[in-house]
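subagent[fold] <- orchestrator: predict structure for attached chain, return tokens only, no commentary.
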Amino acid sequence: MRVKIKKSVLGFEQWQLVVIVLLLNFLNNYIFSIVAKHFSISLNKGFIDNYSITEKIVLFIIIGPVIETLLFQYVVIEICKDQKMALKYSCFVSAFIFASMHLYNVFYFLYAFVTGLLFACLYLAGKNEKNAILLPLVTHIIYNGIGFIGKTYFS
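subagent[fold] -> orchestrator:
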């Protein structure tokens, strides 16, 4: 699977992959928001009001993506690879565990599963070990940052 992913993304620069995954994540969010709204369920998990804006930025935009990328993409996928699991299945395992940690409701789980799948594929698309972890990490930070700004200043 890694060869297929690399062949399919060979024509893209690293920054283009980040932009593509960001756009797919926003499309994912939009689709699941519409479906959840139809069932009167919110995808907004909300912010804890006891934290300052600075604490929220550090937790939501920096610490969260770093920990999640290390755990759900790097650790899970590398363990799956060590167990000789096919890479496509390791992406699904990574996405499932990522989504399980975001189990606020069924729609958020499904939304997080797609997001986790995109991040896992982005991890596998890295051209070397350093890029492998940086691609989903940078994408996750940018995605959470844009989401944070939208929820904080435009809701």
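orchestrator: received. Logging for downstream: The chain has a mean pLDDT of 88. Helices lie at 2-9, 14-38, 53-82, 87-100, 106-124, 129-153.
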